[in-house]
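Quick entry between incubations.
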Amino acid sequence: QSALTQPASVSGSPGQSITISCTGTSSDVGSYNLVSWYQQHPGKAPKLMIYEGSKRPSGVSNRFSGSKSGNTASLTISGLQAEDEADYYCCSYAGSSTSWVFGGGTKLTVL
Amino acid sequence: QLQLQESGPGLVKPSETLSLTCTVSGGSISSSSYYWGWIRQPPGKGLEWIGSIYYSGSTYYNPSLKSRVTISVDTSKNQFSLKLSSVTAADTAVYYCARQPAAIDAFDIWGQGTMVTVSS
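Done. Structure below.
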């Protein structure tokens, strides 16, 4: 069971937009529209930001959006704010025998 | 408001069994709408799904941990538990419990996490 591939780090200035990629395979990201994204601030539990690829839970800013193309899912954050600085993880369903696999995480720095 | 709280020993000896409990408050663990999962995070590293359980007792485990993991549910106490056997230093991590609504297939509510260190 291999982790999904994310860039180790991304950065952007306040007000800008950034995109974090999450690359899997035809056995996980490519086969199911069940990618979720989590935000984690240091020392805190992860927070669900996107589910089913592009849906936002109640209370999550519409600056956060998700999409998918083939075996790669993406999280876009527009209008970057200082509070967005955190680690971001993607997660995908990978079938009944494997179930859930996470990405390695991406550290977002707001310059 | 639903809350999850992990509890258990913070220090476990190598080769022994790690045991953690997640207590659910503000809602029923017996709802047919949810699965309940365990996720861990080694220091400075990423998240790893350990396994999930349905209130009926159906379980789903990470294949890489399956031989050592047991997840169970106690509906009378509104709790679910994790046992990880034959632990090594590689099992040192923050362990989180989380709710998984069947309708959205994601982990929407998380406990605060508990640090477990494997050391003699």
